Structure formats: C-alpha cells, structure tokens
Amino acid sequence: MPYQGITTDALLLLSENRLRDSREYYEEHKPQINALAIEPMRFIAQAAGEFVQKHDRLVSVIPTRMVSRVRRDTRFTKDKSLYRDHVWLTVGRGKNDWPFHPLFWFEIYPGRVGAGVGYWFQPPAFMEHVRQWIIDNSALFLSAVKKAERSGFLLTGDEYKKPRRTDCPPELLPFMQKKELYFLRTSDDFAAVSRDDFPQSLCNDYAKLLSLYDCLSALGDAFIAQYPNAAGDFLKPRC
C-alpha cells in the first residue's frame, strides 16, 4: 500500500483528542487517529529505517516500536493529561546498544514539523566525554557538521551559562557549552508531509546527516569501550 500522506486533518484530530482528554473520545476516534497519523508515520519509519540500516546494519527496523504512542505514560510526570497532540518516530540501533548511540528522528507538532539526529540520553558525565572527543577529532567532526548545516540542520540544545571548556579552538566553543547535543531542522511546510514522495525526501535528508551520524556513533562506541557498565550505572533506579 503506498504512502497516503499526513494532512492537517491528522493534526486537528490529535489536538482535539488532547483538548478533550477523554478515554471515551479517544476510543471512539482511535481508528481515525491510526489511519490519519499512526499508520502513515509507521510507513515513513519503515522507509527511513531500511535506508539507515543499509548504512548501519545494527539499526533496528520495527515500525510499531519506532513510532510514539498517542497515549501518554503519566506515572512519572506532573502533567497528568492522557494524550499527546503530536507524534514522532526514531531510527536507531536496538535496545542492546542503547543509550549512548545516536538516533535519527522525525516529528510532527501543531505548527511545525522537524527532523534531526542526536542523542536521546545525555547525562553530564557522557557530555564531558563528548566535549573531549570533539576536541580530539575536531577536523572530522567539523567537516560533518558543515555538511549538515548546508542542509539546514543546526546545532540545538540547552547551554550552560558559565564556560565549560576554553582549551580548544574558537570554532569548537559552541559545542563546549551544550548540555545536550543534537542537530535539528524545523519547518511549517505541512504540505511536504502530505505528498506521496515524502518518505523518500526524508531519506534524502538523512543521507546528508550520515557523516555526522558516524561521528556520533564513534563517539558513543568510544564511551562504551571506556565505561562498559555505563548504561546500567546511569539507568539503575536512584533511591
């Protein structure tokens, strides 16, 4: 079945569902939500996952796991609203390689769409490693960043107010200040997402990020090699 596109009808329905915050409304409109938003996103996830998997054979392609749920998990958040008004997908390695490995993503919000690459999990100790790796591999990293920037993908993320590292060339300082590291491009062009060639268009965008993905992958692999128990240590429950 070909890609059917995601239109503003999907966003309006997701927004209405979020506004009503009603299990009854959701259950009544769940088939429409799936048809207009979830199934098209899974189609995109399949196409994007297979494309990236050709570059990195460890990438997992299971569309039902790659696309976010509309129903929120409210156990650990103060916001107890039941439903999201947005949807996203991620493309990356399976859970055995998580969390210190980059992800591609694509997201649709009311008012904007976005795509990018970066890390989902970025504790301070990992970011210290990130900063040192960038300094040690600056030529390789900056070349990949410039390629991403030419396609509109820009460095994003919260910053520290005080300088973190000053023992580096000036062109590396913006990366030293980041609490998190990812590259994002946003747009309000929803018409693009409704066209039948959008999955291929997203793959073309991801192709321009593969050099950066390789840098972030090498960076994460180096961290795991140095700290093989890091994932368990960072993710274990805190009392």
Could you give the topology of this structure?
Elements: H1 8-20, H2 23-55, H3 63-66, E1 87-91, E2 103-109, E3 112-118, H4 124-136, H5 138-150, E4 154-156, H6 173-176, E5 182-187, H7 190-194, H8 198-207, H9 210-226, H10 230-235
Helix pairs in contact: 1-2, 2-8, 5-9
Would you write up a description of this structure?
- This protein has ten helices and five strands; from the N terminus they run H-H-H-E-E-E-H-H-E-H-E-H-H-H-H.
- The protein has 239 residues and is α+β, with helices and mostly antiparallel strands.
- The chain has one domain: 2-Layer Sandwich (BirA Bifunctional Protein, domain 2).
- The protein has a five-stranded antiparallel beta sheet with strand order 1-2-3-5-4.
- Strand 2 (103-109) and strand 3 (112-118) form a beta hairpin.
- The radius of gyration is 19 Å and the shape is globular.
- The termini are far apart.
- The model has no long low-confidence stretch (mean pLDDT 92).
